[in-house]
Structures are given as structure tokens and as C-alpha cells.
Amino acid sequence: MSAQGHTWSQQVKKEDEEEDPLDQLISRSGCAASHYAVQECMAQHQDWRQCQPQVQAFRDCMSEQQARRWEELQRRKEQSSTHR
């Protein structure tokens, strides 16, 4: 038998361990730290009104990311139209 025989199951993610698509999106955005700050604040205070600074920071981060993404898409669109 090979030494690898039993370890393969450790490499397979279980269904409940898969990362949530929303978490993946937030991670790719670069705004995960501010998102986690909102989650921590909500867990501590259980009142979104007390977490407005964290919510605003997350909102600002996501808005900046969305603007960067939109600009990138516009550049690609312009480049593809000029190469035709």
C-alpha cells in the first residue's frame, strides 16, 4: 500500500466547508477586512446602528472597488473596439 492511502480525504472539501460565493466575492474585492469588522461589531453590539462607522467603511471600500472594476471594463471595451 502507498503511504498516501488515507490522506486523500483531507484534501477534499466537505460540502459544509465550501466557501460561500458572497465571501469569495468580498475576498476578491479587497474589502474583506472591513466586512469582518462589520461582522465583529454586529456580533458584539447586535445593533447595526452602533456599527455605522464600520458599515460606512465597508460601503466606501466596495464602492471604490466597483468603480475600479467599471473603469477596467470600459478600458477593455474601448480596446476591443479599437482593435477591430
UniProtKB/TrEMBL annotation:
Biased composition (Polar residues): 1-11
Any single Gene Ontology cellular-component annotation: mitochondrial intermembrane space
Keyword tags: Disulfide bond
GO biological process, any: mitochondrial respiratory chain complex IV assembly
Pfam family, one: CHCH
CHCH domain ranges (all copies): 31-63
Stretch forming the signal peptide: none
PROSITE patterns: CHCH
Region (Disordered): 1-25
The protein's name in its UniProt record: Cytochrome c oxidase assembly factor 4 homolog, mitochondrial-like
Lineage: Eukaryota, Metazoa, Chordata, Craniata, Vertebrata
